[in-house]
Design a protein that fits this description.
mainly alpha; rod-shaped; 0% strand
């Protein structure tokens, strides 16, 4: 009977780790969220699930079979590697987005300056035209 109980507990342990792992993969944007049918990146959420698995590992040390410990270790390692990869991607995307915004702000300032310059040129032309008209009248 204790063998069945231990087998059931092992299955429940694998199920628990798998639930947190799947939630982390969804938060990393590696698999679709079944609720939204979309892949979205939520690094804070992924970090939480990875931390939960780390906590389970730390609290269960000495109470896991070799197979359970190995399963948990490999799950956490894979998630941490992918978390680092997604963090780098997010930083790169943020950097590129910032550069694009900087360029558009620069282009907007340049366009405003061009508009001001054209207005000044038109004003000068108007003054020249008025001066010519006044000379013609004399």
């Amino acid at each position: 009977m204790s063998e069945k109980k231990s087998t059931k507990e092992e299955q429940l342990f694998v199920y628990l780790v798998s639930m947190f792992s799947e939630s982390a993969w969804i938060a990393l944007g590696k698999i679709k969220n079944p609720a939204t049918d979309k892949t979205d990146r939520n690094l804070d959420g992924a970090s939480l699930y990875i931390d939960l698995l780390d906590m389970i590992k730390n609290r269960m040390t000495g109470n896991l079979s070799n197979q359970e410990a190995s399963f948990l270790d490999s799950t956490i390692s894979n998630l941490k590697l992918n978390f680092m990869e997604e963090t780098r991607k997010a930083e790169k995307e943020d950097s590129e987005k910032g550069e694009m915004e900087g360029k558009s702000e620069g282009e907007e300032a340049e366009q405003k300056e061009d508009t001001k310059e054209k207005a000044r040129d038109e004003e000068k032309e108007d003054k020249k035209g008025k001066t010519r008209d006044e000379e013609k009248e004399d």
